[in-house]
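R.M. (postdoc): so does anyone remember the format we settled on? I'll just put the structure tokens first.
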């Protein structure tokens, strides 16, 4: 039997985004070809500690997508499902990198569906170039003075250099 169709094509793209990487940007751009609107949601992950404040993380994303219609940025420090209900969206967008992401993503998708049947998680496979990059590794490399140019948007790169007091802008 056919299920009721979702009323809108809004997707929530939640994450810690500490900071947003070019892998995330790629997912948002590709997602925006599928969905009418994407809300990039800086959400709270209690298992992580953060380098950038929520405001800084939102600001990076706003700057990157300031000219893009249909991409909004918001933050939420409660349950993702509560945000979803309140926003009227029914779809969660997530990127999937290597196999190592699978179990974590599977668990999150299932726990979210357990809370409301009115949600689907849609996965886009990470772009080939970004398969092995993560915010965590990028921070680690940057903190030790290594180059992360090209892995993160330029505004993020600048701020990482400032945070870690790295002088060599040419890296
Ligand atoms: O980028 P991350 O850290 O992998 O994103 C995980 C995130 C923030 C999407 C997840 O922790 C989340 O949904 N946090 C909101 C709280 C919540 O609803 N938790 C239960 C589902 S995991």
């Amino acid at each position: 039997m056919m299920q009721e169709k979702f009323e809108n094509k809004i997707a929530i793209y939640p994450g810690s985004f500490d900071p947003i990487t070019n892998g995330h940007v790629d997912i948002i751009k590709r997602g925006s070809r599928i969905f009418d609107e994407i809300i990039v949601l800086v959400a709270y992950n209690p298992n992580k500690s953060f380098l950038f404040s929520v405001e800084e993380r939102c600001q990076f994303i706003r700057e990157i997508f300031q000219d893009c219609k249909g991409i909004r940025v918001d933050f939420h420090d409660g349950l993702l499902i509560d945000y979803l209900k309140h926003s009227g969206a029914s779809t969660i967008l997530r990127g999937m990198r290597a196999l190592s992401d699978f179990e974590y993503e599977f668990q999150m998708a299932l726990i979210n569906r357990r809370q409301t049947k009115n949600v689907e998680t849609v996965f886009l496979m990470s772009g080939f170039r970004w398969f092995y990059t993560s915010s965590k590794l990028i921070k680690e490399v940057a903190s030790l003075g290594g180059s992360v140019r090209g892995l993160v948007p330029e505004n993020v790169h600048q701020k990482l250099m400032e945070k870690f007091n790295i002088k060599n802008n040419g890296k």
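R.M.: ...and that's the designed sequence above, right after the tokens. Also worth knowing: Residues 14-16, 43-45, 48, 79-80, 108, 111-112 surround 4'-phosphopantetheine (CB under 6 Å). Strands lie at 10-15, 37-43, 71-76, 91-96, 120-125.
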